[in-house]
């Protein structure tokens, strides 16, 4: 939540239509029901500029099952996405999307480095259109010093469609995080999202909460 508050105080200095630099506010929560079962919850508020010009609101939840001594998690989830797309310099249209998704996460350690692989398959109901998409996410988490609460975070995620124009997008991210305590960590970083012919830069502010 601290990350969200900090971002809300940022000056609105970027013009939405004239800039390729935007901002994402992200909250990711995980509620453990017992050692095996968990509920995932997620809110992402994406802006064309620093804050205040909505590009996309994403709400996601799911039920997961952890196995293999906590190294793996399989999850079935649902997501709702409201997109605000510019059709002219001043006019937007709203697009509603409902998603059902299945994902598998595998975690591993190499010394102090944490690696995570996430495989996600989405069934997307975008207004009157139906689409499917596969996503592969690889992340790493490296403590900056032994016993330090600060860490370096990086990931790459590729999106592939099942129909023509197979390549959908790729996201490359690097940032710095802080472990506030055993349940909460905050993170900020830069992400480049590139499509087939265009790209966008994002400032990401994230809060991760595990209960």
Task: Give the topology, please.
Blueprint: H1 2-8, E1 21-32, E2 37-47, E3 54-67, E4 72-86, E5 92-110, E6 113-126, E7 129-143, E8 150-161, E9 167-179, E10 184-194, E11 199-210
Parallel strand pairs: 1-11
Antiparallel strand pairs: 1-2, 2-3, 3-4, 4-5, 5-6, 6-7, 7-8, 8-9, 9-10, 10-11
Short descriptors:
211 residues
Concise synopsis of the structure shown:
With 211 residues, the protein is mainly beta.
Structural account:
The chain is mainly beta and 211 residues long. The chain has a single domain (2-210), classed as Porin (Beta Barrel), CATH 2.40.160. 3% of the residues lie in helices and 70% in strands. It has one helix at residues 2-8, and strands spanning 21-32, 37-47, 54-67, 72-86, 92-110, 113-126, 129-143, 150-161, 167-179, 184-194, 199-210. The longest helix has 7 residues, at 2-8. The radius of gyration is 18 Å and the shape is globular. The two termini are 15 Å apart. Mean pLDDT is 90; it is low at 1-18.
Order of helices and strands: HEEEEEEEEEEE
| Low-pLDDT windows of residues | 1-18
Based on CA atoms alone, the radius of gyration comes out at: 18 Å
* Structural class by secondary-structure content: mainly beta
Q: In what order do the strands lie side by side in the largest sheet? A: 1-2-3-4-5-6-7-8-9-10-11
User: What level of helicity do the residues show?
Assistant: under 10%
Beta strands, count: 11
CATH topology: Porin
Number of domains: 1
